[in-house]
Structures are given as C-alpha cells and as structure tokens.
Amino acid sequence: MARSGAVLGVGVIAAVGAGGMATAKDRPNPPISMPDLAHLADDVTDALPAVQDLPGIGPLLAGESGEETAGAVPAHGSPQPFSQVGLTAQDRANGTTDAGEALRARIMRQAEQQQTAADEAEREAAVRAATEAASEAAAEQKAQEEAEREAAAKEAERKAAAEAERKAAEAKRKAAEAERKAEADRLAELAGSYALPLSSYTLTSTFGEAGDMWSANHTGQDFAAPTGTPVKAVHGGTITEAGWAGAYGYRIVLTLDDGTEVWYCHLSSMVRTSGSVSTGEVIGRVGATGNVTGPHLHLEVRPGGGAPINPLSWLRQFGLNP
After folding, report:
1. What is the number of H-type helices and E-type strands within the chain?
2. Which of the 8 DSSP states describes residue 28?
3. Which spans does this entry mark as compositional bias, Basic and acidic residues (predicted)?
4. What global pTM score does this model have?
5. 254, 261 Cβ separation under 8 angstroms
6. Where are the domains of the chain?
7. Using CA atoms, how far apart are residues 25 and 32, in angstroms rounded to an integer?
8. Rounded Cα distance, 224 and 204, in Å
9. Are strands 296-302 and 230-232 parallel, antiparallel or unpaired?
C-alpha cells in the first residue's frame, strides 16, 4: 500500500508538471495521456529500503535463528499482506501467520529466557551461598572439635600428672613407713641388747651443763638414786678399768665391742672389776664417792675412748628413753 501510494503521487506530479497550471477558463481541456506507471512503480519500489533495514524495525522482525525476514515484496514479485511482514521460515513452519503474534511470541520467549537466566543466576548464587555457609559451618565445627580434643588431651595430661604425683607421694609415704618400721625393728632388736643403767632414778645434771662442782661443763648425765641402788651394764662388753678415780670417786670403765667406753662414777661399791659382762648384769652400786653433793650415778659415754658425748642421745639411738 505504501509503495502504491507513492507511485500514484509521483504520477500525479508528473502529469501536473507536463500540463502546467491551466484552468478551464484560460484554455480548453487538453487530452490527458497517462505515463507508463508500471515502469515508474518498479523504479520507486527498487529505490525504497527493505522493511528489515528500517531503523528500529528490522531487529524486531528478525528471526531467532538468524534467518532473514520476508520483505514486503517476495522474490516472485507479488506483494504479501502487511500482517505477514517479518515472518520467518521458522514462524511459518510453526504455523504462525500473523507477524504481530510472531513478534509477541519472540518477545515472550526472550523474556522467558531472560527470566530463566535470572533464575539460574539466583539459584547458582544461592548454591554458592549455601556452599560457603556449609564450608564455614564445617570449619567452625572442625575448630570446635579440635579445641575439644586439645582440652581433652590437656585434661588427660593433667589427670595423668596428678595420678603420677599421687603415686609418687604414696610410694614416698610407703617408703617412709617402711623406713620407720625398719628403724623400729632395729631399735627393738637393739633394745633387747641394750639396757638403762638403773631401774629407778631421777635425772638431774645434764650433759654440757655449767656448775661449780666441775672445772668445765658437765661431761655426763647424772641419775639420782639412793645409795646402794644396783648399777647395770648397758651392753655386753669388757671391764677394762675399776677403782678410785679422784673426783669421779669409785669408777668402772666398761669397753664395748665397738670401742665405746662407758664410765660409771661415784659408786659406793664395785661388784665386778674385770672380765666380760652381759647386758643388764649388775656391776656396781650407787654411791656418793668423789666430788658430789649426794648419791647418784654419773654416766659418761666416750666413743673410741675419746671426747664424751650426750649419754641420753646415745641411749636413745638404741631404742632406750631415759
């Protein structure tokens, strides 16, 4: 229709130009001769652009598969209805005969494709987010499990150390108990072989005590008792001296097997003056001979016959408690 109108307009302009501006009043009506409009229409038709080349129209009428759209004038030269302009071969194969419906269908398909792409992108984003969240959760779970394992290992180590410490303390306690028992057994055995010098007494002047009765500090331990109280050998040994000893009065020296000398001083009488004696055997009697103020036994202990030591400490090491 557009091309036919254009041809008709061109023919009218050509006719007016050829006849000039004439009126019925000025001159008579000349005979009208029509030009070859068919030839002119073909020329105008060839000069017009194809529909698909029109700006903004061609892309809308283009086929989805890149096929060229059908023009206003088909190859065989006969015009087609405007409603079919822009139809592709694929549209016709699908049974579509309306260009507008075909265009709407293509737009709808494009919209569906875009929506599908958007949905796919959203789904992929959701999958990535879920994967990242799962990875973070797994990492947190792993870190928590590792922390729990470390805490459990430390707790086990602490318990093991505590148990080892407890066992060490228990072993130490048992060792100390065994040592005390062994010492008690030793002292009990020794007590059977050692004896106190008197059965009944009162401790008076002690070892190392200062006084006017002796020139230096007291060198022994005094056991006060009535005159005539029996004096016993503290351990088996040999009497190596017996007799008067000046300030010591009557004195008996008992030498033990290890060389220790035990001095019994201020005796009123000497029952044994020589030979071997056994533990607890009576060797003399309490008196007040020598430099004294009253009857008592002055006992001295001299290891190896040397300087005196505290008699009470010496007796205690054998399980005796004066």
Report:
1. 6, 9
2. P
3. 142-174
4. 0.45
5. yes
6. 2-102, 117-193, 202-316
7. 17
8. 7
9. unpaired
Closest CA to 251 of 261, 279, 259, 260: 261
Q: Where is 277: in which H helix or E strand?
A: strand 275-277
Q: Quick one: DSSP state of residue 306?
A: S
Q: What is the DSSP letter of 294?
A: S
Structure-block tokens of residue 237:
């040994």
Provide CB contacts within 8 A for 41, sequence distance 6+: 3, 4, 7
Give me the architecture of the 202-316 domain, per CATH. Answer: Distorted Sandwich (2.70)
- Please give the backbone phi and psi of residue 164, each rounded to the nearest 5 degrees, phi first: -65, -40
Closest CA to 230 of 271, 262, 265: 271
Residue 105's Cα: distance from chain center in Å?
66
The pLDDT tens digits for 96-110 are 777 777 788 889 888
Tokens of 271: 């029952």
Please, which residues bridge with residue 309 across strands?
301
Cα 252 to Cα 245: distance, rounded to the nearest angstrom: 9
Tens-digit pLDDT profile for residues 141-187: 999 999 999 999 999 999 999 999 999 999 999 999 999 898 777 76
Q: Are 14 and 33 in contact (CB under 8 A)?
A: no
d(CA 319, CA 192): 9
